[in-house]
Design a protein that fits this description.
The chain has five helices and five strands; from the N terminus they run βααβαβαββα. It has helices at residues 28-31, 36-49, 62-72, 91-100, 138-163, and strands spanning 12-16, 54-58, 78-82, 104-108, 130-133. The two termini are 17 Å apart. The structure holds ligand CA2.
Amino acid sequence: MAKSAKRETTDLLVLNGPNLNLLGRRQPEIYGRDTLDDIAAAVVARAKDFGLSVDFRQSNHEGHLVTWVQEARDANRGIIINPGGLSHTSVALLDALIFAELPVIEVHLSNIHRRESFRHHSFVSSAAQGVICGLGPQGYLLAVEAMAGILKKASAAKSKKRRA
Ligand code: CA2
Protein backbone atom coordinates (compact mmCIF):
# COMPACT_ATOMS: atom_id res chain seq x y z
CA MET A 1 0.00 0.00 0.00
CA ALA A 2 1.33 3.43 -0.89
CA LYS A 3 2.26 5.52 2.13
CA SER A 4 -0.32 8.16 1.25
CA ALA A 5 -3.19 5.70 0.77
CA LYS A 6 -6.01 5.95 3.29
CA ARG A 7 -6.21 2.87 5.54
CA GLU A 8 -9.53 1.13 5.28
CA THR A 9 -9.35 -1.03 8.39
CA THR A 10 -8.71 -0.43 12.04
CA ASP A 11 -5.67 -1.91 13.75
CA LEU A 12 -7.23 -3.41 16.86
CA LEU A 13 -10.45 -5.34 17.07
CA VAL A 14 -11.48 -5.48 20.73
CA LEU A 15 -14.26 -7.97 21.31
CA ASN A 16 -16.32 -8.50 24.43
CA GLY A 17 -18.63 -11.42 25.03
CA PRO A 18 -21.93 -12.01 26.81
CA ASN A 19 -22.97 -9.95 29.83
CA LEU A 20 -19.98 -7.62 29.71
CA ASN A 21 -22.48 -4.86 28.83
CA LEU A 22 -23.56 -5.15 32.50
CA LEU A 23 -20.19 -4.07 33.86
CA GLY A 24 -20.31 -1.41 36.53
CA ARG A 25 -23.89 -2.23 37.43
CA ARG A 26 -23.57 -5.53 39.34
CA GLN A 27 -20.93 -7.59 41.14
CA PRO A 28 -18.46 -4.67 41.52
CA GLU A 29 -16.53 -6.78 44.06
CA ILE A 30 -15.56 -9.11 41.18
CA TYR A 31 -15.59 -6.89 38.10
CA GLY A 32 -15.02 -3.40 39.50
CA ARG A 33 -17.04 -0.21 38.99
CA ASP A 34 -15.97 0.74 35.47
CA THR A 35 -18.56 0.34 32.74
CA LEU A 36 -17.69 -1.17 29.38
CA ASP A 37 -17.90 2.35 27.91
CA ASP A 38 -15.27 3.49 30.44
CA ILE A 39 -13.03 0.62 29.36
CA ALA A 40 -13.62 1.38 25.67
CA ALA A 41 -12.60 5.02 26.20
CA ALA A 42 -9.45 4.00 28.07
CA VAL A 43 -8.55 1.46 25.36
CA VAL A 44 -9.00 4.01 22.57
CA ALA A 45 -6.81 6.52 24.46
CA ARG A 46 -4.06 3.94 25.12
CA ALA A 47 -4.14 2.74 21.51
CA LYS A 48 -3.78 6.34 20.32
CA ASP A 49 -0.47 6.53 22.22
CA PHE A 50 0.76 3.82 19.85
CA GLY A 51 -0.87 5.33 16.75
CA LEU A 52 -3.41 2.51 16.59
CA SER A 53 -7.11 2.72 15.82
CA VAL A 54 -9.70 0.62 17.63
CA ASP A 55 -12.94 -1.11 16.78
CA PHE A 56 -14.47 -1.94 20.20
CA ARG A 57 -17.51 -4.23 20.25
CA GLN A 58 -19.66 -6.28 22.58
CA SER A 59 -22.26 -8.93 21.90
CA ASN A 60 -24.36 -11.32 23.93
CA HIS A 61 -24.52 -13.62 20.89
CA GLU A 62 -21.86 -16.21 20.12
CA GLY A 63 -22.63 -16.06 16.38
CA HIS A 64 -21.99 -12.31 16.22
CA LEU A 65 -18.58 -12.76 17.79
CA VAL A 66 -17.76 -15.65 15.43
CA THR A 67 -18.78 -13.56 12.40
CA TRP A 68 -16.75 -10.54 13.54
CA VAL A 69 -13.68 -12.72 14.00
CA GLN A 70 -14.19 -14.28 10.54
CA GLU A 71 -14.51 -10.82 8.99
CA ALA A 72 -11.27 -9.72 10.64
CA ARG A 73 -9.29 -12.45 8.87
CA ASP A 74 -8.50 -10.45 5.76
CA ALA A 75 -7.63 -7.27 7.61
CA ASN A 76 -4.21 -6.81 9.07
CA ARG A 77 -5.28 -6.36 12.65
CA GLY A 78 -4.82 -7.76 16.08
CA ILE A 79 -7.65 -9.16 18.16
CA ILE A 80 -8.03 -8.48 21.87
CA ILE A 81 -10.87 -10.52 23.27
CA ASN A 82 -12.67 -10.95 26.54
CA PRO A 83 -15.00 -13.80 25.57
CA GLY A 84 -16.87 -13.65 28.89
CA GLY A 85 -18.62 -16.93 29.72
CA LEU A 86 -17.99 -18.20 26.16
CA SER A 87 -14.35 -18.66 27.14
CA HIS A 88 -15.35 -21.79 29.00
CA THR A 89 -17.75 -23.27 26.44
CA SER A 90 -17.14 -22.11 22.88
CA VAL A 91 -15.30 -24.34 20.45
CA ALA A 92 -16.94 -22.26 17.67
CA LEU A 93 -15.19 -19.10 18.84
CA LEU A 94 -11.91 -21.00 19.18
CA ASP A 95 -12.27 -22.33 15.61
CA ALA A 96 -12.98 -18.83 14.26
CA LEU A 97 -9.91 -17.42 16.03
CA ILE A 98 -7.70 -20.20 14.65
CA PHE A 99 -9.14 -19.60 11.16
CA ALA A 100 -8.45 -15.87 11.41
CA GLU A 101 -4.69 -16.43 11.67
CA LEU A 102 -4.29 -13.12 13.46
CA PRO A 103 -2.52 -12.30 16.69
CA VAL A 104 -4.91 -12.76 19.60
CA ILE A 105 -4.66 -11.65 23.23
CA GLU A 106 -7.27 -12.93 25.67
CA VAL A 107 -8.24 -10.72 28.59
CA HIS A 108 -10.30 -11.40 31.71
CA LEU A 109 -11.10 -8.79 34.31
CA SER A 110 -11.17 -11.33 37.11
CA ASN A 111 -8.60 -13.98 37.94
CA ILE A 112 -10.46 -16.96 36.51
CA HIS A 113 -8.05 -19.34 38.29
CA ARG A 114 -9.13 -18.10 41.72
CA ARG A 115 -12.78 -18.65 40.96
CA GLU A 116 -15.06 -21.68 40.37
CA SER A 117 -13.28 -24.62 38.71
CA PHE A 118 -15.48 -24.38 35.58
CA ARG A 119 -13.82 -21.02 34.89
CA HIS A 120 -10.29 -22.42 35.04
CA HIS A 121 -10.30 -23.67 31.46
CA SER A 122 -10.70 -21.35 28.50
CA PHE A 123 -11.06 -22.83 24.99
CA VAL A 124 -9.98 -19.48 23.56
CA SER A 125 -6.59 -19.57 25.30
CA SER A 126 -5.17 -22.11 22.87
CA ALA A 127 -5.63 -19.61 20.02
CA ALA A 128 -4.14 -16.74 22.02
CA GLN A 129 -0.59 -15.51 21.92
CA GLY A 130 -1.04 -14.28 25.47
CA VAL A 131 -3.61 -14.29 28.26
CA ILE A 132 -4.07 -11.58 30.90
CA CYS A 133 -6.42 -12.10 33.82
CA GLY A 134 -7.16 -10.68 37.24
CA LEU A 135 -5.96 -7.12 36.65
CA GLY A 136 -9.34 -5.53 35.97
CA PRO A 137 -9.59 -2.93 33.18
CA GLN A 138 -5.82 -2.48 33.29
CA GLY A 139 -5.61 -5.89 31.61
CA TYR A 140 -7.14 -4.38 28.46
CA LEU A 141 -4.55 -1.60 28.45
CA LEU A 142 -1.67 -4.03 28.92
CA ALA A 143 -3.10 -6.05 26.04
CA VAL A 144 -3.10 -2.94 23.83
CA GLU A 145 0.54 -2.29 24.70
CA ALA A 146 1.52 -5.91 24.02
CA MET A 147 -0.45 -5.99 20.75
CA ALA A 148 1.22 -2.75 19.60
CA GLY A 149 4.56 -4.54 19.94
CA ILE A 150 3.31 -7.65 18.15
CA LEU A 151 1.89 -5.66 15.20
CA LYS A 152 5.04 -3.54 14.93
CA LYS A 153 7.20 -6.66 14.77
CA ALA A 154 4.91 -8.27 12.19
CA SER A 155 4.94 -5.20 9.96
CA ALA A 156 8.75 -4.89 10.22
CA ALA A 157 9.08 -8.54 9.21
CA LYS A 158 6.73 -7.95 6.25
CA SER A 159 8.73 -4.94 5.01
CA LYS A 160 11.98 -6.89 5.34
CA LYS A 161 10.49 -9.75 3.29
CA ARG A 162 9.30 -7.28 0.60
CA ARG A 163 12.77 -5.71 0.38
CA ALA A 164 14.53 -9.09 0.11
O1 CA2 B 1 -13.34 -11.98 34.31
C1 CA2 B 1 -13.80 -11.84 33.18
O2 CA2 B 1 -13.54 -10.89 32.46
C2 CA2 B 1 -14.78 -12.90 32.65
O3 CA2 B 1 -14.52 -13.09 31.28
C3 CA2 B 1 -16.17 -12.30 32.85
C4 CA2 B 1 -17.29 -13.27 32.48
C5 CA2 B 1 -17.10 -14.60 33.19
O4 CA2 B 1 -18.09 -15.52 32.75
C6 CA2 B 1 -15.73 -15.19 32.93
O5 CA2 B 1 -15.61 -16.38 33.64
C7 CA2 B 1 -14.64 -14.22 33.37
C8 CA2 B 1 -18.64 -12.70 32.93
C9 CA2 B 1 -18.97 -11.37 32.39
C10 CA2 B 1 -20.22 -10.92 33.05
O6 CA2 B 1 -19.99 -9.69 33.65
C11 CA2 B 1 -20.92 -9.21 34.52
C12 CA2 B 1 -20.67 -7.95 34.97
C13 CA2 B 1 -21.52 -7.38 35.86
C14 CA2 B 1 -22.64 -8.05 36.29
C15 CA2 B 1 -22.89 -9.32 35.82
C16 CA2 B 1 -22.02 -9.90 34.92
